[in-house]
Amino acid sequence: MSKRQEQLVNVLLREPDWITAGSLADLLGVTPRSVRSYIAQINARADDEPHAIESGPSGYRADRAALAALRSDSARTSTRDRLHGLVHQLLESRNGIDLRRTAQSLYVSVATVEADLVRVRELLSGTGVTVQRTGSRALLSGDELAQRRLVSKLAHEEMERGSFDGEGLRRAAGLGSLEAESFGPFKRALAAQLAEQGYYVNEFASTDVVLHVAIAADRVSHGHPLEGTHLQPSAQQERLAGVIGTLASQHFGVSLGQGDLHHLASLVLTRVVASDGSAGTQVPLDAEVEKAVIRAVGHAAEEYLVDIAHADFIRRLSLHVQNLVHRAREQAWSRNPLTKSLKATYPMIFQVAVSIASDIAEQLEVTIREDEIAYIAMHVGGRLERSRRAEAALTATIVCPGYYELHDLLRSRLDESLGPGIEVTAVETRVDPDWSAMTTDLVLTTIEPPVPDERTVQLAPFVTEADIERIAAVASKRRRARRLARLRGELERYLSPEAFLRPLRAKDEEDAIRQLSAPLIARGIIDEDYVSGTIERERLSSTAFTESLAVPHALTMTARRTALSIGIAESSIRWGEGRIQVVALAAFSESERDAFQTVFEQLVEVLSERDSLQRILRRGTDFGRFLDELAAVIDG
């Protein structure tokens, strides 16, 4: 498959519903005609499954099994697969490879291999490995640890395509000496052994550790062990080294030396586990790291008005950051398969994590990559979820005229079934209650109200499971309506005709940021320093929180007042590694910090819904119509 076809397949496999050719074209930066051509070519490749991509009145949809199988088959002959194969040949050859013979073995021209070698040099960036040329021969140069880092990078690229299975990782990492079926049992056995020793295992990072152990086993089996160091390992490292050595022998059939075992034990301690303090596993906390985390968390809590400055949260995050610092200094990064979905689904949480990571990186003088920021976001999200549960509670009035204690039985049943999300604040037992005086979010009644509305749920005196499901459905709609009502009011305050650009014609992120900043600068809301801060924030981590929307902003809230500048491109524009169509530049002021959560998170929520976004783009041709359509979407 071509690069565009691979991108199209990835989008369709992620998309659960039908998607139009126009939407696909916007995401890929091509025309709808090109999309239809790609789909025809992909379906033509699927001889046994001619409809790997289904078409219908609503657009296109993937037959997931057929399309995933087709992608797997195509991967074996793709350009990336050829590049990876070339790198593995270089890794396996002590004396290098002859480019002419390599071209013959791959059934391509020497010019193609020469071009591939240029791409290989780009792939080697950051690994510590280089390519040396002597005539027609090419040779890899770099120590054993650097070469393993390169193998890990190849495997992680495969993981980004969704290949978490043992066979996909074995093929991507070139682990020809190992059985794919060994990966899963090794991972489960390692997790069980670590749990017995008092460690909590991070599932995502444990996959990374298994990969590194497998790489070590394969390299050792080919005569490339790691030499030991003169440093005395800790008692924890010695225990973990024993566990890893036993399991590697059992599952991979390889005996690892002390150099490999101590290196892998250190890797486990910095990637996979957080000690619970039992069995002598308490990890000492570095005072400098803890101080940096306290400052960063305090700053984020104050800047974004989030409830995260708690001792237990700071302790857990400090342990994570301590391991992160070790990984950063060794350039042994952890990958996070949830990075994109975290950014798209929880932009507010991710922004808080970016702020924390930025502060920590500056204080401890380390580089923190986006996947590592995503792990910090997972910590932040866990802490905020506790506070949000209380904030999301709805009030309810029970109307239940009846016999003896019927209303008490009803209330007890509702409390038991609905939990803390709905709080009963009033009970009416008259047959003629004052309906107009009921101001709660929900009215749960066993008698028919004179004028039913969206908050009323009529129940049987003895509540059934179907009644509980209807209450939960109405409660969900009320919560969303409450959130979006706040958003509508905020939007009217922060949007203006002058700061609405359609069409937005921008060549890249910086160009779009400067165009959208201009009307805010003209009105004295922000200055050039804020623009520079917004561009710097964008370089730290892309603000393209969905496949259609970017929300650039500065880390500091130095705007004179909070405002939004909206830009809509008629066709998608390049933004980071993807393409987007709507840009909402946000200027936040210190005095209006509470607006951050309302506008930032809920605006993204509305514009992330594909159908709603397409409606707004189709009908919101000027500022007035844009606001009307946005309000209509908010009202449901």
TrEMBL record:
Domain PRD as annotated: residue spans: 284-390
For this protein, the record's SUPFAM superfamilies field holds:
Phoshotransferase/anion transport protein (SSF55804), PTS-regulatory domain, PRD (SSF63520)
In terms of superkingdom, the source organism counts as Bacteria
Q: Respond yes or no to whether keyword Transcription is given for this record.
A: no
Q: Which Gene3D superfamilies match?
A: Mannitol-specific EII, Chain A, PRD domain, Winged helix-like DNA-binding domain superfamily/Winged helix DNA-binding domain
Q: Which UniProt keywords apply?
A: Repeat
Residue ranges constituting the PTS EIIA type-2 domain according to the UniProt record: 493-633
Q: Specify the protein name.
A: Lichenan operon transcriptional antiterminator
Q: Which organism was this protein described from?
A: Nesterenkonia lutea
